[in-house]
Amino acid sequence: MRTFDYSPFYRATVGFDRVFDLLDSVSSAQAGANGYPPYNIEKAGDNAYRIVMAVAGFAEAELNVTQKENELLVTGQTAPTNGQDEKQYLYRGIAGRNFERRFQLADHVKVTGAKLANGLLTIELQREIPEEKKPRAIPVQAGQPALTH
Q1: Sheet strand arrangement including 109-117
Q2: In sequence order, what DSSP letters do the residues of 23-88 get, joined into one string?
Q3: What residues does each domain of the chain span?
Q4: Residue pLDDT, tens place only, 93-117
Q5: Cα 95 vs. chain centroid, distance in angstroms?
Q6: Fold of the domain spanning 36-80+95-130
Q7: pTM higher than 0.70 for the full model?
Q8: Each residue's pLDDT tens digit, 78-93
């Protein structure tokens, strides 16, 4: 897989080094990821997002969604079988293996809910910017400049 050198961007930007670090980590994580389970990331509104994962064969109790700071961790653990009622497959195309999928979330993004329907796990995300972080207008007043000595 190709790697991209972000060093020219470091020289031309101020304060965006964390963004480029995240891009580096995503590209390196994708190189080693197996792609299971497949997922979509959707924009549901101005500050609303949705992650939809295909988790066919998993029950609600076998899925775990955890947010810790700016990381979302989704895991699936199939229930262990005790050897009884084991099925004999002629062909097994539905992957029922355990998985762990991590997502890096932007600042102020919170998980607001998760639901499982028709083999799809839908995780709702909302960006809630604190009032002190929102842009505010600064009034410009006419007057004499202050003289400094």
Answers
A1: 39-43, 48-54, 120-127, 109-117
A2: HHHHHHHHHH----S-EEEEE-SSSEEEEEEE-TT--GGGEEEEEETTEEEEEE-PPPP-STT---
A3: 1-33, 36-80+95-130
A4: 877 789 999 998 888 889 999 999 9
A5: 22
A6: Immunoglobulin-like (2.60.40)
A7: no
A8: 876 665 557 788 887 8
